[in-house]
Amino acid sequence: MTPAPTPNPDRGFIRRLVVLAACVALLLGGYWIVWGSHRESLVVYCAHDSIYADAILRDFERQTGIPVAVRYDTEATKSLGLVELILQEKAHPRCDVFWNNELLGTLQLAGEGLLQPYRGSGYERIPAAFKDADGRWAGFAARLRLWIVNTNRLAPTEAAIRQATSGDLDRMVIAKPLYGTTRTQYTLQWKLWGRDKLLAWERDRRARHLREVDGNSMVKDLVCSGVCDLGWTDTDDFFEAHDDGKPVAMVPVRLESGATICIPNTVAILSGSQHPAAAQKLVDFLLSEPCEMALAAAKSRQIPLGPVDNALLPEDVKQLKKWAADGISLADLGSANTECLTWLKSEYLQ
Amino acid sequence: MTLVRSLVVASLAVAVARVIAPLLTDRRRFFRRMAWILLLAPYLTPVLLTGYAYGSFSLSLIHHPFGNALFYSALLWWKFTPIAAVILHFTPTPISAEAIHCRRLTAAGTSWWDDGLFLFRAGCGRGPVAAFAVVFLCAFAEFEMASLMVVKSWTVALFDAHAGGLALSESLRRMAGPLLGEAAAIATAVVVLGTRQDAPGNRIPDKRSRPWPAWAHLMIAFLFVVLIPAAKVLWGTFRGFRLLLENFVLSREILASLLFAAGASVLAGLAVFGLAGGARRNQLGSMPGKIILVAAVFAGLLGPLVLSLAVLAAIQLPGLIVLRDTPAPLVFTLGLVLFPMALVLRRVLALTGRRSAWHLTRLMQKSRALRDLTWKLNTRRKFWALAFLFIWAYWDLTASAILAPIGMTPVTVRLYNLMHYGRIEALSAMTCAAFAAPISILFLAAGTRRWWAPP
Questions:
Q1: Is beta strand A68-72 parallel, antiparallel or unpaired with respect to A115-116?
Q2: Which of B217, B246, B275 is the last residue of a domain?
Q3: What's the pLDDT score for residue B295?
Q4: What is each CA distance from B190 to B16, B133, B186, B288, B392, in whole angstroms?
Q5: What is the pLDDT confidence band of residue B274, given thresholds at 50, 70 and 90?
Q6: Chain A positions in Cβ-Cβ contact with residue B379 (cut-off 8 Å)
Q7: A154 partner at 20 to 30 Å CA-CA among A139, A184, B104, B168?
Q8: pLDDT for A1
């Protein structure tokens, strides 16, 4: 006699799982259709800090009714990750608009022929020093490179900083120069000094125990807590510490010529964009006076580049605007950008 | 560096797991339960939470990188010792205590080395070797905590290099060395655990063991991996809660994470429980079935970083590029990552189930009581196994960062990004909200017990 087959004790459970799988698939599909990167969404790659950019982009959605799907970068690989992603995707582009929080990556994409020109109402209001003559990109809402100084440890003056950085640099910290605005600073030095002098400078600073961390926010944290006395950062990070009541002060980073380093956000439309009309609307929106004013009023205190009503600017931003007026031109960094990045990658990505 | 650290962590974890083992079989129910809770809590605490809590502390050790690396290693040790302890618990020695005693009587005067060799040859080394291999694998593949604590590791270097524009082929080429180490560990674990063995005998009582070092380890691990991080996050939460209520920006991300985690855990659950049914019908005895099973286990054990990069390469191929912007690659990858653990859980459920009681229950007439008994004896344990997989998938960061489609950013990716700005109160509140979401969902799901337990 053949024994009766053993019933599968899991059968009922598996049936429930199948039902649950169907429900989850439906919900995932629903989410994807509503908020995912579907046909109608304007795809934005954004290297600007999500805590500030998100509000601006949601505002654009509300005002225009155009759905926006955003991919943000990670803080640790600021902007470089998205630039590389756009380069990797050039055969099958997904991104419509690239909102970069600095200039160099945008210049690189322009050099690769991946940006399409657009001269709209926003472009017209930005000064020539901060936009591409061919209309491939435009800058807005800038930041300044700063010395952040712990006032319990050091006087916030250029003389005190010179003194503190003349010997051992064990108590000075910077972000890895492969990324973000520190990279812009290195690229500028590369252009001004040339390769050999920059490399010698770098070797010397490493020999004097200069500390490097993943990002400018970490620089700020280390100086705030007194673990380090001073470091390089940007205005947005400095004001986070300042608003929290930390014992910090800022001194603008000045090059040998006395010029400051003012780094704009940049925005560009990608060649092959699936939504050119919507992309143009977003570019005009970002380059508009209300958007620049909103970013100036935010905790990040970004410096408007186009004409705005100065009376409405916060006091901090008025001061920054004066320093920004001494800013060095970043427009012709093309070859220095490529060479310096190649060297930095060989140093940091091995 | 990562290799040496992982070897040390794995050795220490196995050594301590052996000391902890007696607590897990204590005859006193209260002490046994306490031991299990203290043991498992550090493992179940999301690494993102631990990494976030200690991020500032690690940064403050910038002048003492060795101290930071040492602290990170200790956290790994506390976090992964539970894996070793559980493996040892479920792979007891095949030799009974009586047999050991007889051996000692007949071979009086032999050295401890001879004793050890004898036990190893008899199969007593199976559990420790497997535990060592799996803990090594976990420590070697760890990424999130290393990244937040600014510790040098191959995973962080690879992730950064990939994000920094390293070509995918180059990323995959660089993985070859670490992959070899991982493959060796996986092969060891699979071979050792897959060895057929007689039914386990009585556990060997170790009269030399003292319970207090084991309790001390469990409490220290609980303190550093669970309590301090939870306290730090909760402290910030109270102060940041108002900000969170004013501007709750993570709702979409939390929803995306819940859906990804649900998809992946259901996928893994279906694969494992469906597989069990297939095994019962001998459909997995065939060579292709075995190959698929081993391949899936191998892929899952590679960890989310390696697997995600491989999947990312796959979806660039012409036939698969249509999947690039969909949730499918992430759900599939997370499902694969969960698969080995789901298999282990399925095996544990099978070993520890009360089969006779369950069989008697099946003979009862359909009734409400039958549903309740079905839930208690059978479905409840599967439900919580699935819940465990769900939570695990929810807290994944690596695969999510690499494979999430645009517009569907999972909450862990967003939190990880925000955590790099340092510790702020609103972020603590966000972390707390992200922590509470899956737990709330599970409580809600537990209310559907009658649906889960069909007569």
A1: unpaired
A2: B246
A3: 83
A4: 22, 9, 6, 18, 22
A5: confident
A6: 12-13
A7: A184
A8: 47
- Tell which phi-psi region holds residue A194, choosing left (phi > 0), alpha (psi between -120 and 50) or beta: left
Q: Contact A31/B269, CB-based, under 8 Å?
A: no
Answer whether residue A87 shows pLDDT above 50.
yes
DSSP label of B95:
S
Q: Which two tokens stand for residue A15?
A: 């049936």
The number of beta carbons lying within 10 Å of the beta carbon of residue A160 is 17
- ipTM greater than 0.90: no
Element (H, E) at B291: helix B287-301
- Answer yes or no: do B420 and B438 share one domain: yes
- Which residues 289-348 in chain A show a CB within 8 A of chain B? 345, 348
- Report the percent of chain B where pLDDT is more than 90: 17
CA pair distance B313, B304, nearest whole angstrom = 14
Cα dihedral B76, B399, B159, B407 in deg (nearest 10)? -130
Is A220 within 8 Å of B59 when comparing Cβ atoms? no
Encoded tokens for A93: 């582009």
- How many domains does one find in chain B? 2
Average pLDDT score over chain A:
87
Task: Specify whether B263 is located in the same domain as B224.
Answer: no
Which stretch of A321-335, B162-176, B223-237 has the lowest confidence by average pLDDT?
B162-176
Residue type, B413: V
In order, the DSSP letters of B314-353 are HTTSTTTGGGTTSSHHHHHHHHHHHHHHHHHHHHHHHHH-
CB atoms within 10 A of CB A322: 12
Q: Quick one: average pLDDT of B226-251?
A: 74
Q: Which domain holds residue B404?
A: 250-455
Q: In A, residues 199-218, which contact B (CB 8 Å cutoff)?
A: 211, 213-215, 217-218
Q: For residue B261, which residues of chain A lie inside 8 Å, CB to CB?
A: none
Q: % helix / strand / coil in chain B, to the nearest 5?
A: 80, 0, 20
Token pair recorded at residue A55: 């509000």
Q: What's the first-to-final CA gap in chain B, in angstroms?
A: 55
Burial B249-267 (b: 16+ CB within 10 A, else e): bbebbbbbbbbbbbbbbbb
Q: What is the pLDDT of residue A320?
A: 92
Q: Which of A84-93, B78-87, B417-426 has the lowest mean pLDDT?
A: B417-426
The DSSP output letter for A96 is: S
* Separation of first and last alpha carbons in chain A: 70
CA distance A16 to A159: 72
pLDDT in tens, B399-438: 888 888 887 889 888 888 777 665 566 777 788 888 888 8
Average pLDDT, chain B: 79
- What Å distances lie between residue B388 and A246, B264, B385, CA to CA? 42, 12, 5
DSSP 8-state secondary structure symbol assigned to residue A130: G
> What are A7's two structure tokens?
């019933």
Domain boundary residue among B246, B280, B302? B246
In chain A, the domains with their CATH numbers are 42-142+261-325 (3.40.190.10), 145-252 (3.40.190.10)
Helix-helix angle B126-141:B2-24, to 10 degrees: 130
Do both B415 and B312 map to the same domain? yes
User: B165 vs A228: CB contact, 8 Å cut-off?
Assistant: no
| pTM for the structure as a whole | 0.78
Q: Coil, strand or helix: which one is A143? A: strand
Which pLDDT score, from 0 to 100, does residue B94 have? 64
CA distance B118 to B100: 10
Report CB contact under 8 Å: B422, A217: yes
Q: A46 to chain B: which residues are within 8 Å by CB?
A: none
Closest by alpha carbon to B72, among B25, B130, B8? B8
